[in-house]
User: Fold these one by one.
Assistant:
Number 1:
Amino acid sequence: MKALTVQPMQKGSARLDDVPEPPDSDGPVLVETLGVGVCGTDIEILSGEYGWAPPGRDRLVLGHESIGRVLQAPAGGDLAEGDLVVGIVRRPDPVPCANCAVGEWDFCRNGQYTERGIKEHDGYCSERYRITPDYVVKVDSSLGTLGVLLEPTSVVAKAWEQVDRIGGRAHWSPRTVVVTGAGPIGLLAAMIGVQRGMDVHVIDQVASGPKPDLVKDLGATYHTGPLHQAVDAPDVVIECTGVGSLVFDAMEHVGPGGVVCLTGVSSGGRTLDVDAGILNRSMVLENEATVGSVNANRRHYESAAGALAAADRAWLARVVSRRVPIASWEDALDRRDDDVKVVIEVGS
Ligand code: BGC
C-alpha cells in the first residue's frame, strides 16, 4: 500500500513509498485512511528537526492528524464497518509511569511514550492502518472528512481543561480570553471559547487572507496589534504561537487570578530582555498562573468530538483550506498565504 514515509532527523528524506499492509500487532481494527492534516510538527519532522523511527527501522510513516473509515472491527464492540474514526496519537509508556498507568498519557513522566507518526510508531498517512479499539474515537458522521480536525481540537480541549482546573483554585467564571495566533490551533481554541459563551479575542500578525474573517464569523474579535492594546487584563490567554515575546506579553498582561496556557512549541536560539523582577512581582501579587500543555488523552478527544459536532460545518470547511491528493504530497508542504489547515487526501 502507499504511505508517506520519512527518515527522521534527515531533511528532504520524505517520499511516497510502497509499504507492507499494517501489521496485525497494531490491533484488530482495520481503518482506511481518508485524509491526514499537516501541522507544524510534521513540517519539523520533514525538515529533519524532530521525530523518531520505530525501533530497528530507519523510516517512519508520517501523519498524526487523521480521519478514516473502519473497514473491519471486532464483532460486539462499539465500532462497525463504515464508522468515521480518528486514531489517538500517543500510547502510554511501557513501564508505565503513574500517569500512563491511569490513562493520562499526555502527562507521561518518563518520556518513554510513543506517538503515531511522530515517535517510534508509524503514523496514519498510509492507505490503511490497524489500531486497538481503545485508541479509536468516533466522529459525528455529518462531519465527514472535517473530522480530520479532531486531533488539533483535542489539543485545545486539553488546554481549556488545564485553564479550568487551574482557574478553579478560587471562584472561576472567566469572561474574556485572548488567543494568540490564528492558525488552526488558535482558531479551534477560539471556537471552544465562543462555544463557552466567552468574549473571545484573537491576535495574529496578518491583516489579510482568510484568518480575520474566520475569527469574525465565529463571533470573536480579530486584532493585529499587541496584546495589551487588544484587551485589558484578560482572564485567560491561550498562547498558540510559541513566539517568546508573545509568551512574555501574555504573562505580563493576563488579569489578576488569570491563567496563561502555552501550547506553541518554539525553537530555541533567541534571547529576550525580560524584567524578571516585575514579572515575578505581578505573578505573585495577582496569583497568576502560566502552564504548558501538550498532547491529549482520550477524555480530551471525546470533549473535542463534542465541540466539533456542535460547530458550524461551513466554518470548519473554511478551516480546512486546501486538500492535496497524496500523489502530489509535496504541494501540501508548500506554504501559501491563504493556507489555514492543509489536508493530504489519502483515500476517497
Ligand atoms: C501533536 C501532539 C504531540 C506533539 C509533540 C503535536 O503536533 O499534536 O499530539 O504530543 O506534537 O510530539
Number 2:
Amino acid sequence: MNPVKVGLLGLGTVGCGTVNVLARNGDEIARRAGRGIKVIAASARDISRERNCDISDIQLTTDPREVVNLPDVEIVVELIGGTEFTRELVLQAIENGKHVVTANKALIALHGNEIFEHAQRKGVMVAFEAAVAGGIPIIKAIREGLAGNTIQWLAGIINGTGNFILTEMRDKGRDFAEVLKEAQQLGYAEVDPTFDVEGIDAAHKLTILASIAFGIPLQFEKVYTEGISQVTQDDVSYAAELGYRIKHLGIARRANGGIELRVHPTLIPHRRLIANVDGVMNAVLVKGDAVGPTLYYGAGAGADPTASAVVADLVDVVRVMTSDPENRVPHLAFQPDAISDLSILPMEEVETAYYLRLQARDEPGVLAEVTSILGEHGISIEAVIQKEPEDGADVPVIMLTHKVIEQNMNQALARIEMLGGITDKVTRIRVESLK
Ligand code: HSE
C-alpha cells in the first residue's frame, strides 16, 4: 500500500525531530500503522538554512498555505506555534478534508472548541498529544486508559523550562536569568519565555488536561495563573527546612461547587514521587475513583521526545482514517453532545494550605498581632520558624497554615501587611499534600 502523505508546517526543533524519528523508525512505524508515513512537503521561514535532518526528498516552500492546499497531502502536521495564523491554517486544512496533528498547546487551549467543532463537521481528526507534557502520552492515558474512571483531580509539572529553573536554583543556587538562557539554548523555552516563567504555557496545558479529564469545554481564560518569577532562593531553602520542595504545578480538581483550575508555585512534601521530578522532566499525577492515583513521567520538551508524541498521533490517525468518523475516540474524550457545563471555581473560593514568609520587626508583640489576625479569619497555624535577626535587621518569620478558603487568606494578609511591625509584602505559596 502507498505510504500516507504528510505535509509539515514548520521545520524547527520539533519539525526536524519528527523528520528524524520517521526516518529512523520508519519500518517499525509502518508495522504498527499498517502503512508507511512519508513527509512529502514542508514549509519553513528560511528554506536554505542548514538543519539537523534530511529534507532532500521533501518539497519545500516558505508559504505554509501551499502545504495546506496541496491535494496529495492527507495529514497536516502543524509545528509553527502561535495562535492566529495557525488557527487559519488548521481551519483551512480541515476545510480541505485533511486530518491535523499539532503540538500547539496555545492553539488548542484558545481555539480548540472551534477547531474540534469544525473537524467534527468535516469528519476529520485533530490529534494533539504533543501539546501537553512533550513525550508523555498523557492525553491518551486520560482519554482512553482512564475512560472507566470519574477523574477526581490531577496535578502536573507541565512546564519543563520552569522545572529546570527551580531545580537548578535548588541544587546549585544558580541565577534565574542564567538558567533561563540555558533552557532557551537547549530549545526548551517558548519563543516568548514569559510564557514559561509566568505560567501561561502551563495554563494552556492545564486547560487541555482539565477538558479531557472532566468533559468540560476548553476555558483557558478561567485558569488562575501565577508563574515562578517571584520564587526566591530563600523560599526554596525554607521550604526544604520544613520538608517540602517548591514545584510549579498545574492543578485541576473536582471540588464542591465546581472545578478548580489553577497554576502556581506549590510546596509539596519532599517524599512524594512528583516532588523529585527534576530538570526539564515533566510528570502528571491523575487520581481516578477506580484506579486511585497514577503517575506519568517523562521528557516534557525537546526535539525527539516531542516528535515521539507527534509520530504516535500520526500512527493513530493512519490506523483509523478509513473508519466511520462517528466511531472514533472523541477529540475531547467525551462525546461532543455530552460536554458538561460544570462551572470553574473563582480562585477566592479555592481551599488550600499556605506557606507564608513575613518580614517582621524584632519587637515584642508583632508575632502575637499576626497570629491573632490569622485566628480571627479562621486560619490555623501548623508550623512556625523564626530566624535569628542579623544585627538590627528585620526577622524572617515562616509559617505553614492549615487549609483555608483563599478569600479568608486574602483578607488576613491585607490586614497583616498594614501592621507597623511588618515591613514588607507577605510572600505566600500554596501547599498541597497530593495525598
Ligand atoms: N516551553 C515548553 C516547556 C515546551 O518548557 O515545557 C514544551 O511544551
Number 3:
Amino acid sequence: MRLRVQPTGPLAGAVRVPGDKSVSHRAAILSAIADGRARIEGFLECDDCLRTAEALRQLGVYIEPVASETLEVHGVTLDGLQEPAEPLEMGNSGTGMRLMMGLVAGRPMTVTLTGDESLSKRPMDRIKTPLELMGARVEGQGDRCTPPVTVRGGDLGGIRYETPMASAQVKSAVLLAGLSATGETTVVEPSASRDHTERMLRAMGADIEVDGLAITLRPGRTLQPQSIRVPGDFSSAAFFLVAALLVPGSEVVLQGTLLNPTRTGLLEALGEMGAAIRIGNESEEGGEPVGDVHARTSALSAGEFGGELIPRMIDEIPILAVAATRAEGTTIIRDADELRVKESDRLAATAEVLGAMGAEISEREDGLEITGPTELQGATVDSRGDHRVAMSAAVAALIAEGETVIEGAECIRTSYPQFARHLQELGAEGVEEEE
Ligand code: S3P
C-alpha cells in the first residue's frame, strides 16, 4: 500500500488516539496469567497486539473479543499455560516476541517464536543472555540470536541483572521470567525505560519493589485479574502533536492520552524548542497518568538532546526530527544508537526520508543532526517497512510543497490502522490510501 499526502491547511479538532501499544501487550499477557477473567477496554487492535493475543491463545488462554477494542481474557495462571503445538508467529513485533520469550522461559516447555522479515533481523541476544543466566536455553540464528528463536524453559533461578541498555523489553522479559523463578529477581537499568510492566504487576498484586533504577520482584503471589482501560498511545498522539505545531494556524487536542513520564520525553524536548503545548483534564486510568494534550502552531528553535531523555522518547525521535526541520538552528540528537535496531535502522531511514524531502539532515553514529528551518519538498519515499518512519513522513508531507508518496505504508497497521482517517478528520483532506 502507498499513502499519498498533499500539503494541508490548518488542522483543527480533537482526536482520541487508539490504545497504547505497550500497555495493550502487557494487559493481554499479564491478564493471561492472572487467576480469573479480566476485561480489557481500549485494547489496541493493531497487527502487533493481535499477534500477542493469538500467541497467548496458542498457550491455551481463552481470549474473547466482546466489543470493539474490548477483550475478555480468561486467565489461567502461570501453571495453566500449555506448550503450543505450533511456533508463535509474532509478525513485526519486537515487544511481542521479547515479552513472550520471557514468559515462556519460566515454564517447562519448548517454544519457537518466528517473525516477519524485519523482526527476523532484530537481535534477541539481549533476551537470551539474562534468560540463560536464569537457567533457560535460548537458540536463535547467528551471533545476535535473530529469530526464529527456540526457548527451552523451566526451573529458573532469580538473578540480579544489570541491563546493558535502557530497554523496557529486556526489563519486562526478565521480570516475566522472574515470576516463575525460585528466589527474587532484580533488574537494574542504566536509565529509566517505560515502566508499564512494573505498574501493572503491582496493580495485580505482585510483590514488586522499585528503588531508583533497581526493580525487585519476589515470585509466589498469584496475579489477580483487573479490569484495565488502556489509555491513548502517546507515541501515536505524537504525530498529530507535531503536525499541529508545524501546520500554520492549527489547534489540536489529543484526548485521553497516556502521560506516563517514562514516555513523555518528547513533551520536554518540544517544550525546550518553544512549542505551545498544554495539558488538561489530568486523571489516572489503570495506574497510568492520562490527560488531554493541547497543541497549537509554534515557532520552534533548535535543541540538543541526549542522555536519560532519549529512552523516554525513544519511539518519537523520527517525528522530533520532522519538527527540527522547521526549527531555527541545528538540532542535535545523541545517545540514540538503539534506534539502529528498531523496526528499521531508524536513524538511517529518517535521514533518508527527510533528506529526500529537502531537509538538511545528517546521521551521526548515535543520532541525527538537523539544521533548519528548511522548506520541505514533496517526494516519493520508502517507509523501509517501519510504521513510525511512514507516519513521520506523512506529517512532513503536510508541510511540504507538492505531493508526497509514501511507499510501503501498510506497516502503519502494525500500530495505528486508523492513522489516515484521523488525519483526515483533523482537516488534512489530501491524504489517500492506495492499494
Ligand atoms: C517497548 C519498548 C521500547 C520501544 C518499543 C516498545 C515496550 O523498545 O521502542 O516500541 O513496549 O516495551 P526497547 O525495549 O527495545 O527500548
Number 4:
Amino acid sequence: MNSTVLVTGGTGYIGSHTAVELINEGYRVLIADNLSNSEPDVIDGIEKITGVRPGFEKLDLCDAPLLREYIDRNSDITAIVHFAASKSVGESVEKPLTYYRNNLVSLINILEEMQQRSLSNLVFSSSCTVYGQPDKLPVTESAPVKKASSPYGNTKKISEDIIEDCITANPSLKSVSLRYFNPIGAHPTAFIGELPSGVPDNLVPFITQTAAGLRSQLKVFGNDYNTPDGSCIRDYLHVTDLARAHVVAIKRLLENRNKKNYEVFNLGTGKGISVLEMIKTFEKVNSLKLNYTITGRRAGDTEQVWADTSLANRELGWKAESSLEEALVSAWKWEQYYRKNK
Ligand code: WQD
C-alpha cells in the first residue's frame, strides 16, 4: 500500500482533482479542509470517481492545537500537499489582513508540525501571480519574482520564502512549489469541478454560468491591450493535468529524486490564449453562442503571461496533455451536471 498523503484544502477545486489522481495512483488520501470555500459533498464526488472515500476532517489549519492533535492522530502521514488558502484576488485587496493571517498562519502551522516530526515532504500550491507582468515571455522559473499585484499574490510569494527559509534552517525538509498558470475545466466525469462562491472572479466559470443563463452577459475586461486581438492572454491548463503534476511531485519527494531540497516548477501548457479566443473556442466546441460585451480593463490585470514549461517537462517528466477544447467541453459539462444536481 502506498504512503498516506494529507491534502489540505482537498475539497477545493484543485485539491479535489489532486485527491482523485493520488487515489488513482494508490495513495491513501486524507483531506483536511475548513469548508470555508467548498462543500462536503465533494468527498462523495471523489468517491464516485475513484471508488475510494478519502478520510475527511473539517479543520481550520490556523488552529495550531487542533492541527497538532489531528496530525498526532494520523501519524502515518508521509507527505503533505498544501492547498488550503483563500484565493480571491479581488477579495484580498479588500481584506488584506484576513488573507495574510489565513494563508500565512496556516502554512506556518503546517511547517511547525512538520518540523516537530520526521514529516519532511511538502508540495506547495503556488501561482504564476508571483511573476507579475514578466519582462520576457514565456516566463521561466528564474524570472524575477515581482511585487505582487494583490495581497493574495503576495501571500504566495511570502509563503515560498517561508518554506525556503525553513529548509535552510532544517535541511531534512524537502519541498516542491508548483506555480500554476490558469487552471480550467473539470474532471471528465463531471462529478467534481470548480465551485466558485458567489459571482465568479475567473473567466471560465463566468463563461459557463453565462451560457447556463445564471449570468446575463460576460464582460470582456478590455480589448485595448497590446495583444493580437486586444484582449489579455493567459496560459489555461486543464485542472486534471495540473492535478497529475502534484502526484509526480509527491512521488519525486517520497523517492528522494529531488535535485535540491527546494524546487520550483511552472505548470502551464506553454501556450498563450486570449480572452476572445477562449470565447470563440467555447462557442465552437459546445455549439452555442455566448452573450458578451467589451468593457473597460479590470484593475490589476496582467496583459499577457504564459509559461515556459521546459523545466517541469524535463525534470518532472510532466506535460499538459489535454487540449483547450477538452478543457472547455469538461467545464460546460460540469456546469450542466452540477446545476442540474443541486
Ligand atoms: C483571466 C482573464 C481577465 C473574468 C487569477 C489569479 C490567479 C489564479 C487564476 C488562483 C483576464 C479576463 C475574467 C471576466 C474577463 N487564481 N476576464 N471577464 O486573473 O489570470 O488569474 O485566477 O491561484 O492567481 O490571479 O484569471 O480567470 O480572473 O482572468 O474578461 O468576467 O480573463 O481580465 O484577462 P487571472 P481570471
